[in-house]
Amino acid sequence: MVTSPSTQSTYSNGYPVTPLMSPVSRHMDPYMIHIQGMMDEFSYMDHSSVQKNLEFSKSPPPSTASVSQYAVQMLQDDVALLAQEIDALRQTIKQRERRRRQLRWTWVRFLKSLVQHAVINSFLAFVIFWCLWRQRSPIAYTIIGYMRPKVKQMLRVIVHSMLH
What pTM was computed for the model? Predict the structure, then answer.
């Protein structure tokens, strides 16, 4: 059962009342503020652990030994919850690293694909040119006339660089 924040500072299960920080939350029931805070804080975790953490007991423990056992149990639950949170953060980091590796490989794949397309397109252009040349097409002779001086210049540069 939830009591007024002014009369008691904790819920019946020992959780502290969530402080009212914003004007909007001042008009909300403290129980709902506590639930909302817990769900926001652990939204990326599985719902079973959050639901377990949100279960409220009906009455406080009767004796001092029970109170200390209850406090130890609550601390153990908090430690287990923090361990789950750490594991979730580790998984998130691993997923980010996988995405970075995939992105890096994506650029390599892109460049490889680009080179493959260039080679295939060059091969197709050569086949088309060869077919035109075999049929003695004026287009092939025009291409030869355009490319001959450029090829000769490239061969001169190559031979000159090899001899000197």
Answer: 0.37
